[in-house]
Amino acid sequence: MEMRSLYAGTVLPEISQLLEEAMQAYHDGDHAEKLLKKAHQLAPSALPVYFSLYKFLFYKGKLAEAERVVRSALEESARQGGFSASWEQLTPESSDWLAHDSPQHFYLFSLKALAFIRLRLGDREECDKILEKLRFLDRTDTVGASVIGALASGIL
């Protein structure tokens, strides 16, 4: 079976098809969400599915559910990358954070998503703590956490 490469990894063709159908059905939120959840059920460890699902939920304004999916994505990417899922415990030595097509990079990207969700939910304190950790782990800002920092500071 051929795998298809997407952001954050590869998926089987049937999972890729579900993600594509969900994207095309974006205007029909209930249908698109069902497709994404089906993809997640069929491929519970596929990072591209987590990415698609939490982005969809975020843009549909389902922030609490998006946060739950992001936190699950952090756990799964940490498991795949072999490091602690607890962002508070991570250091630059915990993993190779510069490996762009890796669970580590996906973890950083998802941590940025968590910071944005916490900001949107009005939890500036946790948002700031997450952004501080991202500056520590991702010193060259490869995932663009500085944009969330600028939003939090009211610059953007």
UniProtKB/TrEMBL annotation:
<dbReference type="InterPro" id="IPR011990">
    <property type="entry name" value="TPR-like_helical_dom_sf"/>
</dbReference>
<protein>
    <recommendedName>
        <fullName>Tetratricopeptide repeat protein</fullName>
    </recommendedName>
</protein>
